[in-house]
Amino acid sequence: MSIVTMPRGSILQIQGYDASANGGDGSLKYNKVSEHNRSQFDISSERIERQQRMSNGTLRKYFVADKKTFTLSWDMLPSYRTLTVDGAWGAEDLRTFYSSAQGQSSFNIRVNLAKNGTNQESANYEEYVVVFSNCNFTVLKRGMQPFWNVSITLVEV
Question: What CA–CA distance (Å, rounded) separates 95 from 69?
Answer without folding.
Answer: 20
